[in-house]
């Protein structure tokens, strides 16, 4: 009996080693296969139904299981269990659910998003950053409650048309993509407050950018912009404007209409002259280093009376006007690496 038992154990051990060896070479695909076939762990599903939040970030998933797009659908096993549980006095009523409001699928290897995402009519936050996406389904535009969308660090060359139907959108993060231009429909996002398009390949902006009258933070740094439309002056709510590391030679004069502007970043461009900022009474910081500015005029200094930080390093300024001393709020002035002789 002992010999027979040892033989059975040996065969079982050999079979186990064979299975492990087969799986070793392709762990990721096995994990993906398990997700597709076995769906999500029941605990994850129940937690999402209870909290309204589903977070599947950083799992290396190439294609989400079908249950992700309809988290409230009961499986056959759950349906069977429900017939027993619903009449019981369980404190944990797992079959109850709240609408999904936050979906995080970041840091995976997704190449597509299911059209069934439109099932989540109450979704407020959708985080798809750090994937391999180059398009989004048209049904995304049906998410009328969506206020925050993060599609940064993907492969988008154009913003999908479905985004422009998101009338409630307040924050759009699309940095670190391959955007070459912006559709005129960007102006449809009238409730937008935060727009990050940094680290793309934008060469120009549409005139409709001026319709984004509620935007307070606009980041266009690290692009290929050579000029800006005059409609930039229509962004009346703007507080933070980052245009650093582009190819700008000047700023439109109507920038002075940005009454609420507090921080202006224009370093690492080819700007030769600073515009008068007469109406920018809220301006606290100007970062204009690494340009080709030759003159710091008396008139310009007069328009920045409330400035706290003025960074003009690495330019070609040869003289500082005497009225620089009138800037009573100034805390930091950097004019290093210029052409000053005194």
From TrEMBL:
<dbReference type="Pfam" id="PF23598">
    <property type="entry name" value="LRR_14"/>
</dbReference>
<dbReference type="GO" id="GO:0005737">
    <property type="term" value="C:cytoplasm"/>
</dbReference>
<keyword id="KW-0677">Repeat</keyword>
<dbReference type="Pfam" id="PF13855">
    <property type="entry name" value="LRR_8"/>
</dbReference>
<protein>
    <recommendedName>
        <fullName>Disease resistance R13L4/SHOC-2-like LRR domain-containing protein</fullName>
    </recommendedName>
</protein>
<dbReference type="InterPro" id="IPR001611">
    <property type="entry name" value="Leu-rich_rpt"/>
</dbReference>
<dbReference type="InterPro" id="IPR032675">
    <property type="entry name" value="LRR_dom_sf"/>
</dbReference>
<dbReference type="InterPro" id="IPR055414">
    <property type="entry name" value="LRR_R13L4/SHOC2-like"/>
</dbReference>
<dbReference type="InterPro" id="IPR050216">
    <property type="entry name" value="LRR_domain-containing"/>
</dbReference>
<keyword id="KW-0433">Leucine-rich repeat</keyword>
<feature type="domain" description="Disease resistance R13L4/SHOC-2-like LRR">
    <location>
        <begin position="116"/>
        <end position="198"/>
    </location>
</feature>
<dbReference type="InterPro" id="IPR003591">
    <property type="entry name" value="Leu-rich_rpt_typical-subtyp"/>
</dbReference>
């Amino acid at each position: 009996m002992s010999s027979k038992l040892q033989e059975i154990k040996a065969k079982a051990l050999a079979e186990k080693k064979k299975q492990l060896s087969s799986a070793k070479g392709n762990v990721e695909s096995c994990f993906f296969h398990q997700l597709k076939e076995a769906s999500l762990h029941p605990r994850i599903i129940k937690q999402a139904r209870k909290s309204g939040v589903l977070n599947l970030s950083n799992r290396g998933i190439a294609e989400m299981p079908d249950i992700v797009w309809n988290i409230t659908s009961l499986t056959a096993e759950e349906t069977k269990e429900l017939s027993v549980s619903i009449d019981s006095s369980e404190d944990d009523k797992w079959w109850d659910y709240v609408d999904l409001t936050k979906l995080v699928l970041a840091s995976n290897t997704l190449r597509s998003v299911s059209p069934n995402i439109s099932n989540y009519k109450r979704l407020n936050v959708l985080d798809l950053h750090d994937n391999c996406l180059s398009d989004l389904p048209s049904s995304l535009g049906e998410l009328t409650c969506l206020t925050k969308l993060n599609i940064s660090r993907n492969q988008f060359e154009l913003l999908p048309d479905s985004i422009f139907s998101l009338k409630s959108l307040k924050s759009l993060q699309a940095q670190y993509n391959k955007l070459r231009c912006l559709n005129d429909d960007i102006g449809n996002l009238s409730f937008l407050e935060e727009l990050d398009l940094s680290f793309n390949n934008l060469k120009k902006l549409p005139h409709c950018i001026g319709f984004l009258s509620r935007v307070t933070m606009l980041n266009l740094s690290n692009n290929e912009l050579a000029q800006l439309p005059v409609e930039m002056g229509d962004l009346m709510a703007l507080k933070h404007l980052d245009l650093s590391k582009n190819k700008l030679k000047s700023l439109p004069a109507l920038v002075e209409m940005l009454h609420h502007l507090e921080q202006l970043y224009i370093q690492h461009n080819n700007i030769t002259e600073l515009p008068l900022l007469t109406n920018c009474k809220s301006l606290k910081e100007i970062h204009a280093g690494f340009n080709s500015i030759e003159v710091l005029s008396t008139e310009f200094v007069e328009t920045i009376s409330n400035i706290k930080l003025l960074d003009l390093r690495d330019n070609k300024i040869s003289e500082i006007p005497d009225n620089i001393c009138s800037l009573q709020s100034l805390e930091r002035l950097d004019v290093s690496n210029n052409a000053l002789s005194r």
